[in-house]
Amino acid sequence: MSGETESMSSDHERQSEEEADPKGDSDYMPPDEAAAQQQERQRKLSSCNLTSPLKSEPSGEYDQKLVKDRVKRFDFLLKQTEIFTHFINAPGAKTPASPLKLTPPSNFPRKERRRHPSASTRHRLSEADEDEDLLTDNELEEVAITRFADNPWYIKNGEMRDYQIRGLNWMISLYENGINGILADEMGLGKTLQTISLLGYMVLMRDVPGPHIVIAPKSTLSNWVGEFKRWCPSLITICLIGSAEERKRIISEEIMPGEWNVVITSYEMVLREKTTFKKFNWRYLVIDEAHRIKNEKSKLSEIVREFRTTNRLLLTGTPLQNNLHELWALLNFLLPDVFNSAEDFDAWFNQSKLEDKKLVDRLHTVLRPFLLRRLKAEVEKKLPPKKEVKIYVGLSKMQREWYTKILMKDIDVVNGAGRQGKMQLLNILMQLRKCCNHPYLFDGAEPGPPYTTDFHIAENSGKMMVLHKLLPRLKEEGHRVLIFCQMTRMLDILEDYCLWKEYCYCRLDGNTAHVDRQNYIDDYNSPQSDKFVFMLSTRAGGLGINLASADTVILFDSDWNPQVDLQAQDRAHRIGQRSTVRVFRLIVENTVEERIVERAETKLRLDKIVIQQGRLVDSHHKVGGEEMLSMIRHGANVVFSSKDSMTSEEDIDEILKKGREED
Fold first, then answer.
1. What is the CATH number of the domain that holds 286?
2. Residues 367 and 394 grouped into a single domain
3. I need a labelling partner for 128 at 20 to 30 A (CA). Which of 171, 174, 385, 533 fits?
4. Which letter does DSSP use for residue 260 in this model?
5. 214 vs 12, 157, 390, CA distance in Å?
6. Domain CATH for 652
7. What pTM was estimated for this model as a whole?
8. 153-190 pLDDT, tens per residue?
9. In 585-651, which residue ranges form alpha helices assigned H by DSSP?
10. Helix or strand or coil: residue 215?
11. Is 8 part of any domain?
């Protein structure tokens, strides 16, 4: 397996290059001018001490209002970035026309979500409200999620490593959600190859031939050209470098005709040929050694920000520094519509204050969804295997009664005698899926009032009875568990169960605030954590969440789109995982769930074949009326013919044994 050779210039070479043309270097500033700017910045900062007492002069009220407005504005900007995180975590999102827009595109038919209160009582969302949300999710087109499991077909003369393929999938997810990002892998892990694989995907699979541009240090240009020829020879590249006369020829004879995919050039050439570069609408702008734009007032940084771009990707081998202004510059480049005023930034923060640590942490939190960084020590360790075990369970007596009631309510439709409207079929499917999870998802099913939290929560659901037996064994053996579920109200029931059993837990769903999300994740991953269970709604617990401290995943139910379930599993099965990850998928036999899982597995196999053939997965294939009717009918005779509980005594020892066996 061939790795990428990433040629790195020495500090001496870089220094020589910069000294050769100090005026051409983007970061160069005469000492006198630099000192003057620093004094001006300190003056601004000292004039806005957010923690100093207000003056008693008449202007005090105005100063107080000014300070409050600045703090409010900063909080507002941080909250706006949560929208981008939402796009990353929602697999149903379509690519916005621009990655810088804050509102979902008009062709994305999303209804307003109801936010439930944060109280710990069950049923925070009403049944009717959740039904509407679930139907809304199902109304959406089944959006394809491109995910390479193996080396992309267009990468030649070697194979990408597993972590590089994961990096490619991460960059594709950013593109599909219209978001810019930073690939910050440690030096030598193949950022060049991963970038080439992304551009190959754009040109050869997304039919976006260009124009794309890569801006890199002068000393690495030949390496970039060579790596393109080696790994993806079907891409046409042009390297803009050389004397003024030679550049003029390249521009007129090669660049302007447009018969190419990628231009590779240096920082210096960007400064000298900015007029030419500003003529293009760049689809992907890639900047290698991204720390060169950390000073937003440098010439290079100013010019690059003037380029018309659809997507931006920064490459850096160095970790982000705890420097407020450098972090701001990166945010400004990635999200210019949100973080657009460096002057305001200087006024907001007095860098001599103790609150700096909190501010740095907040900016890191904002950047985290847009940044991927792996270290050699992490990727050199082979990722432990992942083992999935399907656990087939029966319906409880109460579930069987509700399942029968749902089918009988629309018996003419089930028998094919009545009119079969698609929304009616979809609603029947949704109600049957709720019944498979827990009958308490239906108003009036739970005994009470008074409502009690005890064994009946487990006894009345086949899946809960399996959890009731499985979780104590997992806890006893020292495992930590992620539980994924499609339905928010099912998480309410699971939460009550954990409280009853005194399991320490965290919970994350679509209504969890961005700041709280990260706090819960950090709390669960802490070496001193006492949290045993982390329960997540499947679609809210997608990309950007690292829960590798857990080694067991329980899929309480299955998504229509198998890629969504795979992304959920990847929260634990990722770099940093030291143990084999066991995935237990709960399926109620002789119900719609069996058919949903069968359909998802078939789709997964077909998608893999399609992607390897170099075609895009059909993103418009939705479940048809006949297929839905077939799912509804599946197992109906078995349910009708049974009068008692259909649950069986699950052999937990046998289930755990299957989880330990190798494929």
1. 3.40.50.10810
2. no
3. 533
4. -
5. 23, 22, 46
6. 3.40.50.300
7. 0.63
8. 999 999 998 899 999 999 998 888 788 888 988 877 88
9. 592-612, 625-633, 636-641
10. strand
11. no
